[in-house]
Amino acid sequence: MATVKTLIYLVIYPGLLFLFLYSTFVEWYDRKLYARLQNRMGPTHTGRFGLLQPIADFIKLMAKEDIVPDRADRKMFSVLPAVGLAIVFTAMLLLPVWNYSLDQPSAISFNGDLIVVLYLLSLPTFIFFLAGWSSTNLFSTIGGARVLTMLFGYEVPLFLSVLSPAVLADSWRLAEIAAFYRQKPALALVNLLGFIVALICVQAKLERTPFDIPHAETEIVGGTFTEYSGKKLALFRLMMDAEMVVAAGLLATVFLGGFPGGVFLGLLNFIIKTLFVIFFLSLIRATTSRIRVDQVVSFAWKYLAPLAILQLLIVILVKGLIS
Amino acid sequence: MRFQIPIGPQHPALKEPISLRMTVEGEIIRDADIRLGYNHRGLEKLAEQKTWIQNIYLTERICGICSHSHTTCYVQGVEKLMELEPPKRGLYIRTLVAELERIHSHLLWLGVAGHEAGFDSFFMYTWRDREIVMDILEIICGNRVHYGINTIGGVRRDLDEQQVKHILDSLAILRQRSEYYQHLGTNEPSFVARLAGVGYLSREDAIALCAVGPTLRASGVPMDVRKDDPYAVYDEVPFEVCTADTCDVLGRTVVRIKELFQCYNIIEYLLKNLPSGPVAVRAPRRAKPNEVVSRYEAPRGENIHYIKSNGTDKPERLKVRAPTLGNYAATIKMLKNGFIADVPLIFAAIDPCICCAERAVSLVDARSGQEKIISMNSLKTLSLKVSAGKARKREAEWPL
Amino acid sequence: MKIGVFIPELLRHLFKKPATVDYPLQKLEVPRDFRGSPYLRPELCIVCRACERDCPAEAIEITATNEAEKRFRMVIHNDRCIHCAQCVDSCPTEAMLMDTRFEISDYDRHNLKMEWEYVRAVVKPKAEPKTS
Ligand code: SF4
Ligand code: SF4
User: Fold this and answer.
1) What does CATH list as the number for B44-322?
2) What's the CATH fold of domain C30-119?
3) Given Cys at both, which of A39, A53, B46, C129 links A46, Cβ 3.0 to 4.6 Å?
4) Residue B343, min C-alpha distance to chain A (Å)
5) For position B393, what pLDDT does the model report?
6) Are the Cβ atoms of B13 and A292 closer than 8 angstroms?
């Protein structure tokens, strides 16, 4: 029984199959929303309301010629997309989605899994950097350098803002944090500032406008992905979408009380809450223009980091008050 | 570490082929070099084989966005050569289309600036509203891009009451939308942060490097052919020359937005004071031997056509100096010591029209930096001399 | 400077009808005087060849098929035509007109050719040609 459960967990929900389908759905949602905000139609013709468009894009890319540049580090170049995808899918397994009971909220749940998820979410950034660097194209190299520069900006505020709810809940375990805020929903409001900071940081992590600097097409062509094509590019794009799901899921767990309600209600909860987070991500994308890489770093340290620290202070104060 | 990055001839930021070689140190540009010639179409030579009338449509195709500018500039020159006096109503309609074209060009530019800065929503909205002015042009002229309204001695189509009313109605919407974009463009923090202080070009440099159009006016020099050397009916129409003194991309944006409002005023004036009468006079087929220089303020700056006639029905020489060419020298100045991230913005800020500017083969000697114009024949001998006796290179390296 | 000045405008459009049109399925009307492709009304053509001479793209070709019977053949190479309507302006008898078709693309450029074979008409020029 346990084996079957684990298998279902790994392969169907929330593992491979679900994450793949849901990632494509999220891409569709993001594209459609972005288009509607801009008074356009967005994907329309593939499937109902264009729902199958991301899958069609994926299949199309899979079928395209796959080119590895002569000068690139062949092994590294080819293996990176798969590794990146694996990392993101692993991070997904840590989210407490299948909520049977608090003792066994997901296949893997342990004290400190919050840190592991954050760590696993940092790794894709390095994958992007390595992808840019190993393709040896000038544009990719610049893109890779920009990825790292940006990382210095948003990583610390992200950690700080995600840790403060954990401090308030007095646990490093995602399931426990979520359960804590479910019991005392009013306390979730304390983290509002942190939620905003985390949203902006996640936007930066996902490299979406205003932080789409590493692959700013008008400046450095495809940036890190300039040399990628075919299957590898398809995997990278899937990875970005999956990363968006995982990041949104993480924020929903930490700030919005997780996904209670067993198999079906929990699934519904997951979808509603992640879509809620992604709505804001799309809105930010539509509202802003791309900033420069030096502006990212100064913005992150001038505003985001102090705000995150302020959030931490608030949390500590509130914690003193309630205990 | 210094290295060179090529922007173009194929690059997503460039809609037309041109090559910018940027020597960069990290993210900062230390040197820039512009290479032209990827889009030379031999239009001037072709013009010598076509009649005066056929050339109207040829000059129209020099540029897609300022197509009316080129024909007007050409037609004005030819009218001077033929000593024609186009009727007032014709001139009013010609000016009307010119101003409509300026609106569509500036709205297009605003959108492109938004896109280059990664502000795609702004791009979508400005281009959506640009459709209004495109529709007006389509109704007046019968086509969205190549209006074909000019003919030698006037214009080809007349306006009726209904059209005038339609234009005035649409203008009200456009004016309201432009006010909104002005508000938006100057208030969205991430957008302003990208534009302000970028691509600095001081007043002195702008004059010394012969910048033209909004690039020049944004450096605080109030120069506009429409005021300085009025053609068509600009001496009757009240309008102001818009300037800004921030000397950066933000200033160029402001100048263009201000000009939009001037355009609306001009169009309103033109439509309210439209004289009656014919729209064109008959033109002869031949022009007496003479030469003429015609100037025109295109949306991007001063456009100059030099036309020489020899008594036949074809011009002996047509020389086009498109505004973009005048701005290249200033662009290099603006690019230096900027960020790579700002290249598309700075370059887009001159509103480059590369096709327009491609005229002659100009070679830059990499060592001495000297430019020389070479004729096709000597180019051929040169190439033969260089390649003679050399084995064909295999696996040639990308010359960075 | 304000944060998020664009948001109200964006949200306002979220549930509005998109400004774009589902093109091949849904088409916009072109205006009345749209410059589509030129066509000939052979019963009016006096074969003055003004259109042939003024066409900037050299898209009009008039040949005599039978001198004695005054039969002529006109070919409009629509693949070369730049839709400028100069031929319409040049024609003294309004034999040349423009339609409003714009979706004329084809896989074979020869399909775009239009041909008329006709006897020269005897009509008086109605309007003075705008350019002689
Ligand atoms: S529309 Fe213009 S290009 Fe076409 S046939 Fe007539 S004159 Fe020639
Ligand atoms: S200009 Fe008119 S009348 Fe003359 S040949 Fe052409 S179609 Fe016929």
Assistant:
1) 1.10.645.10
2) Alpha-Beta Plaits (3.30.70)
3) A53
4) 7
5) 45
6) no
